[in-house]
Description:
By secondary structure, the chain is mainly β. It is built from two helices and 29 strands.
Amino acid sequence: MDTMTKRCLCALALFSFALRVPLAHAELPRLNFFTLGPTAEEASQGPGLPPATLMFGFAVAVQGNTALVSMPEASPQRVAVFTRNEAGQWLRTDSIQNEAGSLLALDGRYALAASDTVIAAYRHTAQGWIRTQTIDVPPVPTSLVMDGRTAVYVTTPPGQPGSVHVLYRDHRGRWVQGPTLTNRDGAVWGSSLALSKNTLVVGASSDASGRGAAYILRRIGWSWREQQKLLAPEDDTQSFGAAVAVNGDRIAIGAPATLPINENGGFAIGAAYVFDRKGRFWYETQALQPTPEERADTTSFGSFVGLTRSMLAVVAPAPDRFSSAEVFIYEPNGVRRTYAAKGMVVLNSFAGIMDLAASGNTVLAGVPFDSPFSTGFVAGYENVPTP
């Protein structure tokens, strides 16, 4: 057996292991775990050849019973469509061909896919997902969110503070350009975005103080006004605003460079903060960090956050391909709805998590860098209500 064949077989074994057994351990059973992956035809280049490089999971979006997963390195590029059936199983039902989908957003029958200098608009019909519009945008969108008839994206040209651009969908289903929002206090807007009805949260993890901030903007008519600037609550909090999520009157903000340093790798452990709206203003109601037992192996907790009415998901990605990524799931507990840990899932192999999406009781983590060939998969979690 020649060296090349050995390498291919080894890579195939690693790839198969990553898709079949992505868990090292999980404090379950009240979390249902599942994986989404490419089809066998997409993943294979033929007998004796290494798996295809697809980067499946580079971007993910989920709402209700529909999920979108991008494959920007597939040939041709495409976005996989999954549908959850009545038995609760996620099945591959469609593909959006010739679409890189570096950023994805989904709301009902409408979807947006951003890449380079274009946002493509799609609508689901009896014939599948049909492209209805191509929107030219400034290079290069770095965040994209949608809720109802409103979509927001960010562009951050080199050396500039970044701009937040609003799109509105009219009664004909066409997207029209709304206002462009800019920040005047020196922070680089757009490290993250979150939108819930009339509330827009803009992360600025590298603000003038170096600690980070998040800006709350409120929609009034067709315009948006800054309502409040949230600052990192502690001196040892850094990269506050690297990830944001909003659901109704609750916001979650990740601060992955928050101290202390973990024992094994010498990296910051990270933190996530919860804010609730009381009247017109937002107040911190909880700070979350891994337990002392978990801190030895946890790094950059808060790099991604996902928030729904029933749960909060916080990701601590792997710092290198020899480490494991962790997804922490919390659920509201008690009258005040402060969060209690429900479970933690550790992705066994190197897990280059690139995106996180949450809806209802479902969380999807895109893992495009799962093997030396970056075929990719999506790790999914469904929150089962506590008895």
